[in-house]
Design brief:
By secondary structure, the protein is of the alpha+beta class. It is built from ten helices and six strands; from the N terminus they run αααβββββαβαααααα. The protein has helices at about 1-15, 25-40, 50-75, 150, 175-190, 195-205, 215-220, 230-240, 250-265, 270-280, and strands at about 80-90, 95, 100-110, 110-120, 130-140, 155-165. It has a five-stranded mixed β-barrel with strand order 1-3-4-6-5. Helix 8 (about 230-240) crosses helix 10 (about 270-280). It is globular.
Length: about 280
């Protein structure tokens, strides 16, 4: 137990060290030094306890530094610029009064990044996998004080200029969870009153697109925003629906695919993935 505690604390310390104001290259260099020191202390028996602290710290720091260098930095370098981008839609477009939002996975200079795109005046249907080409004005996704995009790995918001070019995609198993989630969300919006539709979709399928920015800020300020997160409670309720099966083997045969399917449909958030692993 003590060894596990040392490993966990060292891993967390390494990840926290990745938040210091240094460039990703310097952090990767520091992670390499910790890794080398951990390997050297692993050889003598007397210093193996130190190795159990240095190696996890190197792993945590390397993860944080690598994410900053290869995921965050490419996106932040584009903030404030205007680019003509071509990307694949990751989900269905969410329509508003004067346009619609759609998440795009784009690639520029060998780096991939995700951007939430607002297409003003476009009311056509955009589905997962569709290829979208449009000129974008790129900005920080948290410029309006909403950091939810950061938690999803989305650091850019793009505002379209002109009409986008949309190339529809064929049916793909890759986007099957999104197809199912979209169908469920449509059913939810039909069954619930307008003032609770966004909350119901968030609690059932993890879709928070129906919540306005004002509603999100109100939940954050009141300290109950986390209640909308899907977690082990939802997974337990789902698995409990199979309690009518007497044999545990039958419950496992149906329950494991059900848990994995629910995790994929709801977007594989960390809390749901953890609950899925524990249930399976």
């Amino acid at each position: 137990m003590r060894r596990m505690l040392r490993i966990c604390l060292s891993l967390c310390a390494g990840m926290a060290l990745g938040l210091v104001p240094l460039t990703g290259k310097w952090l990767l260099l520091l992670a390499g030094i910790l890794l080398l020191a951990g390997i050297l202390t692993l050889i003598p028996k007397k210093t193996r306890v130190m190795a159990l602290m240095l190696l996890p710290a190197a792993l945590g720091l390397g993860w944080s530094a690598g994410y900053q260098q290869f995921a965050v930095a490419p996106a932040k370098s584009l903030m404030g610029s205007t680019q003509t981008v071509t990307g694949h839609a990751l989900d269905y477009g969410t329509k508003s009064a004067s346009g619609q939002w759609v998440p795009l996975r784009c690639r520029s200079n060998g780096q991939s990044y995700t951007v939430d795109v607002y297409l003003r005046g476009y009311d056509g249907q955009i589905a997962p996998g569709d290829t979208v080409t449009v000129e974008l004005s790129l900005h920080d996704s948290a410029a309006d004080g909403d950091y939810y995009g950061y938690t999803q790995g989305v650091y850019l918001t793009g505002y379209g200029r002109g009409d986008p070019e949309i190339v529809p995609a064929e049916f793909s198993l890759r986007y099957l969870p999104r197809y199912i989630a979209h169908a469920l969300s449509k059913s939810i919006f039909k069954c619930f009153p307008k003032d609770v539709q966004g909350y119901a979709a968030a609690l059932i399928v993890g879709d928070r697109s129906g919540l306005s920015l004002a509603e999100k800020k109100t939940l954050q300020q009141s300290g109950i925003y986390h209640t909308l997160a899907l977690s082990g409670m939802h997974m337990t309720v789902l698995v409990s629906m199979l309690s009518f099966l007497r044999k545990s083997r039958h419950r496992a045969i149906l329950g494991i695919p059900l848990c994995i399917g629910f995790t994929l449909v709801t977007g594989c958030s960390p809390s749901v993935v953890r609950a899925c692993v524990m249930e399976c």
